[in-house]
Write a sequence for this structure.
Protein backbone atom coordinates (compact mmCIF):
# COMPACT_ATOMS: atom_id res chain seq x y z
CA UNK A 1 0.00 0.00 0.00
CA UNK A 2 1.46 3.32 -1.07
CA UNK A 3 1.35 6.40 1.10
CA UNK A 4 2.79 9.87 0.79
CA UNK A 5 4.31 12.42 3.11
CA UNK A 6 4.38 16.08 2.11
CA UNK A 7 6.67 18.91 3.21
CA UNK A 8 6.95 22.58 2.36
CA UNK A 9 10.41 23.96 2.95
CA UNK A 10 10.76 27.72 2.88
CA UNK A 11 14.00 27.95 4.83
CA UNK A 12 17.11 25.85 4.29
CA UNK A 13 17.62 25.74 8.05
CA UNK A 14 14.01 24.82 8.88
CA UNK A 15 14.31 21.07 9.42
CA UNK A 16 16.92 18.43 8.66
CA UNK A 17 14.56 15.46 8.32
CA UNK A 18 12.79 16.33 5.03
CA UNK A 19 16.03 17.33 3.32
CA UNK A 20 17.86 14.26 4.60
CA UNK A 21 15.10 11.99 3.28
CA UNK A 22 14.95 13.86 -0.03
CA UNK A 23 18.73 13.66 -0.44
CA UNK A 24 18.67 9.92 0.27
CA UNK A 25 15.95 9.09 -2.25
CA UNK A 26 17.38 11.55 -4.82
CA UNK A 27 20.65 9.60 -4.67
CA UNK A 28 18.91 6.22 -4.84
CA UNK A 29 16.74 7.17 -7.83
CA UNK A 30 18.48 9.85 -9.91
CA UNK A 31 22.14 10.48 -9.14
CA UNK A 32 23.92 8.01 -6.89
CA UNK A 33 27.15 10.00 -6.65
CA UNK A 34 25.80 13.54 -6.09
CA UNK A 35 27.73 15.30 -3.33
CA UNK A 36 25.97 17.09 -0.50
CA UNK A 37 27.22 20.39 -1.92
CA UNK A 38 25.89 19.66 -5.41
CA UNK A 39 22.55 18.52 -3.99
CA UNK A 40 22.08 21.75 -2.01
CA UNK A 41 23.20 23.81 -5.01
CA UNK A 42 20.65 22.03 -7.22
CA UNK A 43 17.79 23.10 -4.98
CA UNK A 44 18.98 26.26 -3.24
CA UNK A 45 21.57 28.08 -5.37
CA UNK A 46 18.86 30.16 -7.07
CA UNK A 47 17.22 31.06 -3.74
CA UNK A 48 13.76 29.52 -4.03
CA UNK A 49 10.84 31.04 -2.16
CA UNK A 50 9.58 27.56 -1.47
CA UNK A 51 10.41 23.90 -2.01
CA UNK A 52 7.52 21.44 -2.07
CA UNK A 53 8.48 17.81 -1.46
CA UNK A 54 6.31 14.71 -1.61
CA UNK A 55 7.90 11.47 -0.47
CA UNK A 56 6.36 8.20 -1.63
CA UNK A 57 6.43 5.10 0.57
CA UNK A 58 5.56 1.48 -0.12
CA UNK A 59 4.68 0.37 3.39
CA UNK A 60 7.55 1.74 5.46
CA UNK A 61 10.09 1.84 2.60
CA UNK A 62 10.85 5.18 0.94
CA UNK A 63 10.54 4.42 -2.79
CA UNK A 64 10.19 7.76 -4.55
CA UNK A 65 9.77 11.50 -4.49
CA UNK A 66 8.46 14.48 -6.36
CA UNK A 67 9.82 17.96 -5.68
CA UNK A 68 9.14 21.42 -7.01
CA UNK A 69 11.17 24.54 -6.23
CA UNK A 70 9.71 27.98 -6.93
CA UNK A 71 12.02 30.85 -7.87
CA UNK A 72 10.79 34.45 -8.19
CA UNK A 73 12.33 36.36 -11.10
CA UNK A 74 11.85 39.41 -13.26
CA UNK A 75 11.79 38.78 -16.99
CA UNK A 76 11.51 41.79 -19.25
CA UNK A 77 10.28 43.79 -16.26
CA UNK A 78 7.52 41.31 -15.42
CA UNK A 79 7.44 39.42 -12.14
CA UNK A 80 7.29 35.68 -12.80
CA UNK A 81 7.82 32.50 -10.85
CA UNK A 82 9.92 29.75 -12.35
CA UNK A 83 9.32 26.21 -11.17
CA UNK A 84 11.97 23.48 -11.29
CA UNK A 85 10.76 19.97 -10.58
CA UNK A 86 12.30 16.55 -10.14
CA UNK A 87 10.76 13.11 -9.91
CA UNK A 88 12.43 9.89 -8.84
CA UNK A 89 11.05 6.39 -8.39
CA UNK A 90 12.97 3.21 -7.57
CA UNK A 91 13.09 0.71 -10.43
CA UNK A 92 11.81 -1.96 -8.05
CA UNK A 93 8.44 -0.18 -7.87
CA UNK A 94 5.99 -1.48 -10.49
CA UNK A 95 6.30 0.80 -13.52
CA UNK A 96 9.17 2.64 -11.76
Amino acid sequence: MFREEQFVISDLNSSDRPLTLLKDIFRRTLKKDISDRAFYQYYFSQHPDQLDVTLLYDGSELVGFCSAAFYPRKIEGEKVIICRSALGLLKSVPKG
Notes: The mean pLDDT is 90. The beta strands are 2-9, 50-58, 61-75, 78-89. Residues 42 and 84 are 10 Å apart (CA to CA). The radius of gyration is 14 Å.
